[in-house]
Amino acid sequence: MLTDALMSLPVAACAGLVAIFVLGGMVKGALGIGLPLVLIPLATQFLELPAAVALLTLPMVATNISQAAEGGHTGAAIRNLWPILVMLVLGTLVGVHLLISIDRRVLNGIVGISFVLLAAMLLSMPRLRIDRRIDPWAGPLVGLCAGLLGGMSAIFGPPMIAYMVGRGSDPDIFVKHMAILALTASLTLLAALGGSGSLAPADLLVSAAAMIPIQLGMPLGRWLRRRIAPAVFRVGVLVVLALGGIDMLRRAFW
Fold first, then answer.
1. DSSP 198
2. 145, 163 in Cβ contact below 8 A?
């Protein structure tokens, strides 16, 4: 799927994809997050959504491995998160099924609406507070929703970020837990696409090669972080997400 889609692109479009992945690396270097939020809306200007998701799969796994293991106590963190992780995996499996099976116009409409709503939510940054009494069912529900969205778009983070912030997590715990959740989601995405036959060995090599422009962009992002306020990057990322959602809605309904 992915290799065939790339082979059919003109050289200029392939160069555009490389530039987009360098930009994604810059955002990752500047903010530490935001890779799928930038890459998926921009990559779908050249590729269908399933191919764009497949292209990003291995970079998502690779960029979350070290953070998930950072600081130790990984086993304890997994035990704390297991109800969310279970529902995240189930949601991702359902989301991938929808990604590869439903009509492209319907898929673009669902994901486009989700992108616009997520951008609006994150731009306004409502001060959510999660009552510990509802945590036993709120966490798994958020995991399921994040998995459904991520399985269709590779964007798992926003629902989980909102939930973790609402719990008032310590910053170090927040980073570790988010990395474990993101790694679990991206590994499930990789396994589901591979198991469905949508990600062939050649596609895996292409997805692995996408790490090169991302790694080239990350030092530039770290350099810019010392010169540009992170809030500027954050707003830029969310504007890209919103515009990508609007474009997907255009393709779905017009």
1. S
2. no
Spatial distance between the Cα atoms of 121 and 143, rounded to a whole number of angstroms: 18
Q: What is the DSSP letter of 134?
A: G
Per-residue DSSP letters for 29-89? Answer: HHHS--HHHHHHHHHTTTS-HHHHHHHHHHHHHHHHHHHHHTTS-HHHHHHHHHHHHHHHH
Q: Which residue has the tokens 């926003």?
A: 158
Cα angle 105, 108, 113 (rounded to 5 degrees) comes to: 130
Can you give the pTM of this predicted structure? Answer: 0.84
Interatomic CA distance for residues 111 and 105, integer angstroms:
10
Condensed to tens digits (0 to 9), the pLDDT of residues 131-174 reads 677 777 888 999 999 999 999 988 887 788 778 777 766 666 77
Question: Token pair 């998930």 is at which residue?
Answer: 68
Between vectors from CA 53 to CA 149 and to CA 161, what angle results, nearest 5°?
40
Range of the domain at 41: 2-253
On average, the pLDDT of the chain sits at: 84
Total tally of structural domains belonging to the chain: 1
Joined together, the tokens standing for residue 62 give: 């690779």
Token representation of residue 229: 């306020």
111 Cβ contact partners less than 8 Å away, ≥ 6 residues apart: 49, 149, 152, 153, 245, 248
Nearest to 110 by CA among 251, 254, 5: 251
The torsion of the CA quartet 21, 15, 118, 234, rounded to 10 degrees, works out to 50
Cβ contact 248:152 at 8 Å: no
